[in-house]
TrEMBL record:
Protein localization: Cell outer membrane
Name used for this protein in its record: TonB-linked SusC/RagA family outer membrane protein
Residue span, TonB-dependent receptor plug domain: 126-229
Signal peptide: 1-19
Family of this protein: Belongs to the TonB-dependent receptor family.
One function term, GO molecular function aspect: siderophore uptake transmembrane transporter activity
PANTHER family in UniProt: HEMOGLOBIN AND HEMOGLOBIN-HAPTOGLOBIN-BINDING PROTEIN 1-RELATED, TONB-DEPENDENT OUTER MEMBRANE RECEPTOR
Amino acid sequence: MQRLCILLCLFATSTDAISARAPLPSAWQQGNLTVKGKVKDINGNPLPGVTVLVKGTKKGATSDEKGNYVLNDVNKDAIIVFQYIGFDAQEIKLDGRSGVNVVLKENQKTLDEYVVVGYGTQKKVTKTGAVSSVKGAELQQSPNVNVSNSLVGRIPGIIAVNNSGEPGTDGSRIYIRGRSTLGNSNPLVVIDGFPRDGFERMNPNDIESVSILKDAAAAIYGSRAANGVILVTTKRGKGGKPTLSYGFNQSFVTPTRLPKMADAPTYAKVVNEILQYGGDVPRYTDDQIKKFGDGSDPWLYPNTNWYDATIKKISLQNRHDLSLSGGTEKMSYYVSMGTLFQDGIYKNSATNYKQQNVRANLDAAVSDNIHLRFDLAGRLENRSYPPRSAGSIFRSLMRGRPTENAIWPNGMPGPDIEYGDNPVVTGTNAIGYTNNKNYIINSTFAAVINIPWVQGLFVDGSFAYDQNFEFDKSFIKPWTLYTLSDVNDPTHKLNAASRGVSAPQLNEAYNSARQSTVNFKLNYIRSFGKHNLSTFIAFEQATIKGDNLAANRKYFISDKLDQLFAGGDKEKDNTGSGFEYARRNYFGRISYNFKETYLFDFNARYDGTQNFPSNRRFGLFPGVSAGWVLSNEGFWKKNIRLLDYLKVRASWGQMGNDQIAPFQYLSTYGFSNGGVMFGGDLNKGIYQLRSPNELITWEVANNYDVGIEAKILGDKLAFEGDYFLTRRSNILVSRSLSMPAYTGMTLPQENIGRIENKGFEMVLSHKNDIRKFHYEVIGTLTHAKNRILFWDETPGVPSWQQSTGKQIDAPLYYQAIGIYKNADEVAKSAHMDGARAGDVIFADVNGDGKIDDKDRVRMDRTENPTWIFGLTLTAKFRNFDFTMLWQGATGASQYLQTESGLIGNFPEAYVKDRWTVDNPNASWPRAYDRGREYWVNQANTFWFWNTNYVRLKTLDLGYNVPAVLCKRIGLQNLRVYVSGQNLLTIDRVKIFDPEAPSGSGQFYPQTKIYNVGLNVTF
């Protein structure tokens, strides 16, 4: 009965309240009293089986199935004690009252024993699936405003890569247990019970917990669950008097790492070498090179550090959060609002991100059997950028020659690198602006109705409506750069030149999307002695609709009026489109356990989506899991003392992935740019977009998992480990590689691909108290590696070039095995035409005495790590608290090759120890010009960097002002803290951040954050 009530409270909508006292009688009773009342939980549900005692006596009673109790012959000054497993005990003095109603609150330890799963919660001791979770309080320790950057290292199974720190686009790419498909690998994100976008932009202070479903537990989400599921639960009112909380933090942001580029004297020498290798005359004399170094003539012989000229030392970031929570027996609430600001790292930056967010989570107990929930959340995401992209700006920074002025000595901007690109200017509003405003509204209404005449039966229904409006406006205008009019003029007169566009131009786009979802569940939760049953069946339907509109105009006569009507009529354009999408699902779950020892779960979803033809639209996705708590067995308790708790579990689930381009089963057509002239009008023609595949269907993932959970010395030492195997089939692949090009045929995608992904994960934790010192150590480890079992391969390629058997996106490169020290080494080896001393040596893989395409080898490393680990250290002593998170990744490599040469500068490391005649044992090849050399224009492993790393991901040190002092100034709690993110990185790359995206180093860097803040509770 007790378990039944706990589960009912967790399945029902959370509604918090405080103890409600009945009014005093009109006259004090002179004798002993008969005390009556009702006991409820914070949701307003009656609690049967509560022990009600008269303190200091043996007199007591137990509440009935409706929560009612009666105590006879009680002294009017007695103290009544209410006790219930999993709830905080309460003591209430009668003071002559004969009626006392009470609301019991679950204690935090009990709440920690539960984990959120799909469409409900489960006790951790009875869960049979691979489900991991993290509390919102842990995520709040990270000063990073993007929640997706705070998961890796904290939760086993999460593999994440962060390629950028640009405000507004600084999220991590997340995989759950790695990649298992050639297509879309994004996990499904469910927020408060509904699939929703925007998880990374949520206010971390609003998050109660985040759970990750990694095996058969995810099958309840059917055709969208194959990549795993992220469940986010927001905070709700806890009852009691109103509690007002305010948080503020101020952050100081700097790049984790910027490449150190060659200085002007070094670059000038390298340019001379490049020209000499090509048989040309050197550009710079020794005297000129000397002037670059001594700073004697900054107008003609500068030594420019383009990064210093463009990037600020420190950028600012701040956040304000305010929340109010509380409630009564009938109503509870959690209301919050917040604002944040992130500035870009450019000087006079046009880049910044602003966000305002509000949330109201309300719960009401209309009666003992009817409970309502209403949630409303809104967010404005305001992104501002210059019209030039971050990639374009950092391309200019990488290519900026130190022998040219970014800024003239008189403070005017120097000339461009090309196409008007001087990053000192293009990172600012001087060239115009791009502004993106995204308004998001999420609303939910839910009701839970207990069926009073059937114990354990209740229904719940919910309706969610989400809407977003996005407006994007980009206004670009000419800007002015300056060049020397005459290098021989001692007055250094500058000529102004208009660059970029010839006249202002404006692009605007409007997008709107709305999603409505209805959900209905019939639940039955009951305990029969030692048998515990929890089950439900449900129906859900979702509809998504959207519209978009875009327009542009050029030839504005002025840059002072940035509205469409002010543009010219010539070459103006507009376009628009819309979409509609729907899905329908039937699903359910049966959870059964005997004595919380023998555990069984079965869930299934009959899922339908319009992405597939009508006769193949629905599919069944089952999942089954079982567990055995050996430590509950009598033989274990009698004979095994070392382990206090041991559970083994196993699962199998079949899930789908329907994240594909829609309507591939139809012959679809598009409008061509050209057309046919009728009279004076151009009539657009149409053409077939694709050949249809009427047999198209979703990917199918068969997930297998075996896990073990153990505890020693109570919960002082705990271990959880899983081995998993995923076999994904029906992956959409085109047969384009095996189809000869001369046929001219464009084939549709077919469900022919197969992938295998396997690995393991584990968590080892230890916690202890030494007098007033409490500490915890938690280590996580995840290993996941995939391989292609089948897809379309080019016929006849050598075995060492085949991608089958390798990881997804495994690249094909020549193997670099060294650097030619002299001409004799070149002559004695197989080499490419034109090879010379100082060039990179390619391996003759097939041994035919020549280097050609057949010598390329398929690498079995990609940009995604195969190992992720984390180590969290927390400690509390008196009023101080400390948290440190180390996170690392191995198994990944990135192709990083800069665009250097006569076209632009080199990273200092590339040329500091470069090959020359006088330095034949160099670690870097000779000076080169962009892609002129074979070892630059042919992809090879010399540029394939090992990006293994270890980071000090988060560091947090806080101090809680003593309660006595807080009380004097009218506060419940005051905490001040300092924290940091990405404070230290240990890796072998050194030049760029190890999470840099593949390419030429032209990306907005990841960021390091120093933070101070406070949390106040009134």
